[in-house]
Design goal:
Mean pLDDT: 93
Distance between the termini: 10 Å
Number of domains: 2
Strand content: 15-25%
Shape: globular
CATH class of the largest domain: Alpha Beta
Strand order of the largest sheet: 3-2-1-4-5-6-7
CATH architecture of the largest domain: 3-Layer(aba) Sandwich
Structural class: alpha/beta
CATH superfamily of the largest domain: Glycogen Phosphorylase B
Order of helices and strands: EHEHEHEHEHEHEEHEHEHEHEHEHHH
Number of helices: 14
Length: 362
């Protein structure tokens, strides 16, 4: 089967969405499928795709954002023309925003089907009632994939057809597992890794640090992530200003993008997942445990299911509950190995890949 993947920027800097896409595409390639990856910006994963035998083609765009500009239409037509061997292929996209180009390829070049992986929370409103590019092309999608029941409910409520939507969790290899280490409370090291933007809870975590610092005198928070656009750069600036206002310059540091999450996280005591939005999954909830590091998450979305968590132990809703969770972890009552055993049963990549492969070739 020829599978055509479409991605704006294949880069680890964009977070777990792209890493999951990479895992799936490279394993589909290993199963014997032919893969073509079309991308707009050349991220750091492109060379890795090429090294594994995946054909890559750079295109100008995926959507027509400014319909009043001739250049926007010309770029879209160029993208359409550059993607070859479409007839009979399956187009597998990693977010619904990539649907316009996928729909054009199916309708006018004879692609067999479109499979859309819904990696992000749903857009506002009822998509099935919209008359924009996404709403109009929605019926051309043959199958949607969501990571859990939480996202199934959210997306079908927003207009995604329930009868086309399949629950397939994110997959992990669990090949590399680091042992859990003893926590030194005299030098407690906390970590955040992810995008720097509204909804990820970084500001909220910064605001919680004075309470945590009042209990653990020597506590440090490292924030890993790099801004990818002006809005994220502004958010980073606001976070730094907040740190200054709370006199936390000696407590919190920004360490930039970390391309290898496990290698980065393994040296910390606890990972905090403070997101305030209904996350579709939260890859770091698994990666932290693979690094041997307990993870504490805001009680939101599917976090409870992913880490088999309990409120006031590894799930929190308030800053006081976050401190309670940290106390629970440092008291050595948190067993990473138990959490990993639970996740292996649910998120082993071999099982996930088989489900996606079956959906693509049906």
């Amino acid at each position: 089967m020829h599978i055509i993947a479409i991605e704006y920027e294949p880069s680890t800097k964009r977070g777990g969405q792209e890493r999951s896409y990479f895992d799936i595409l490279t394993r589909l390639k290993a199963q014997g499928h032919t893969i073509t990856l079309a991308y707009v910006l050349e991220g750091n994963l492109v060379a890795q795709y090429q090294a594994l035998g995946i054909t890559t083609v750079q295109i100008p765009c995926i959507n027509i954002f400014n319909k009043g500009q001739a250049k926007a239409w010309i770029d879209f037509i160029k993208s359409f023309r550059r993607i070859k061997n479409v007839k009979g292929a399956t187009i597998y996209i990693n977010q619904i925003m990539d649907l316009p180009l996928a729909a054009a390829l199916k309708k006018f070049k004879g692609a067999k089907k479109i499979v859309c992986h819904l990696r992000l929370p749903p857009l506002s409103g009822d998509l099935s009632r919209k008359t924009n590019q996404l709403g109009l092309f929605l019926p051309l999608v043959n199958a949607f994939i969501v990571a859990n029941q939480n996202m199934f409910d959210a997306h079908t409520h927003s207009g995604i057809p329930a009868d086309k939507t399949h629950i397939i969790p994110n997959g992990f290899t669990f090949d590399t597992l680091y042992p859990q280490k003893q926590i030194d409370t005299s030098n407690l090291k906390l970590a955040y890794i992810g995008r720097l933007e509204d909804g990820k809870g970084v500001k909220e975590l910064i605001k919680a640090m004075p309470l945590i610092k009042a209990y653990f005198k020597q506590v440090y928070l490292s924030i890993a992530g790099a801004p990818m656009n002006p809005n994220q750069a502004l958010y980073l600036s606001q976070c730094k200003q907040l740190i200054q206002e709370l006199d936390l310059n000696e407590t919190i540091s920004f360490v930039g993008h970390q391309a290898e999450p496990l290698t980065f996280l393994k040296d910390f005591d606890i990972t905090i997942f403070p997101s305030t939005i209904n996350e579709s999954f939260g890859r770091v909830l698994v990666e932290s445990l693979m690094a041997g590091v307990p993870v504490i998450s805001r009680f939101i979305g599917a976090a409870q299911e992913i880490i088999n968590g309990q409120l006031n132990q590894d799930l929190f809703e308030t800053n006081q509950q976050l401190l309670t969770c940290i106390k629970h972890v440092v008291a050595n009552q948190y067993k990473v190995s138990d959490k990993i055993d639970y996740q292996k049963q649910r998120y082993a990549v071999t099982h996930v890949i088989d489900q996606i492969s079956n959906l693509i070739i049906q």
